[in-house]
Each structure stands twice: as structure tokens, then as C-alpha cells.
UniProtKB/TrEMBL annotation:
Keywords: Hydrolase. Residues 5-90 form the Acylphosphatase-like domain. It comes from Halomonas ventosae. It is an enzyme of class 3 (hydrolase). InterPro entries: Acylphosphatase (IPR020456), Acylphosphatase-like_dom (IPR001792), Acylphosphatase-like_dom_sf (IPR036046). Its EC number is 3.6.1.7. This is acylphosphatase.
Length: 90
């Protein structure tokens, strides 16, 4: 199994619309660990670690998000990091 970690910075109407919780639900279904946290500038940072294809699918989902979200930009970076044991929101 090919694993990877990626970080995404999601811009748009992504705070106050359950974006982090919906991202966590998607990640848990795909067995992805990491986090989704609100940033002071209004973006959401998402760390995704897991099987490469699952991370790719979650990365694609980030462009849509939950109902009520309006994503205008997603910036991705593949990173080298120790994969966390769970997915949390903050």
C-alpha cells in the first residue's frame, strides 16, 4: 500500500458551515488521519495522511465541501511528516 501525506489550505466560505466536521467524516470513512483546523485568516488547513488514492479522493472532495460551503481555492502541498494516529478538528 502506497501511503502519503498532504496539506491543503482551503479558501472561501469554509468557516461556520461544518466544513471541518464534514472533512473529518470523509477522512474517517477513507481511513485517513490528520486534522482540519480553522486559521485566523478564514481559511481551513487540512492535513491528510493515508493510502495515496484515498488522499487523492479526499483532496478532490475538498473543492466541494459540505452543503453551505463555497470553496474558491485549494492549495496543496505533499509533505514528509509522521502520520498522526487519528483525524481531529481544531
Amino acid at each position: 500500500m502506497d501511503k502519503c501525506c498532504a496539506k491543503a489550505l482551503v479558501t472561501g466560505k469554509v468557516q461556520g458551515v461544518w466544513y471541518r466536521r464534514a472533512t473529518q467524516e470523509q477522512a474517517l470513512r477513507a481511513r485517513i488521519t490528520g486534522h482540519a483546523i480553522n486559521l485566523p485568516d478564514g481559511r481551513v488547513e487540512v492535513l491528510m495522511c493515508g493510502e495515496r488514492e484515498a488522499v487523492k479522493r479526499l483532496a478532490e472532495w475538498l473543492w466541494k465541501g459540505p452543503e453551505g460551503a463555497r470553496v474558491t481555492h485549494v492549495e496543496f502541498e505533499v509533505i514528509e511528516t509522521h502520520a498522526p494516529d487519528e483525524f481531529h478538528v481544531g
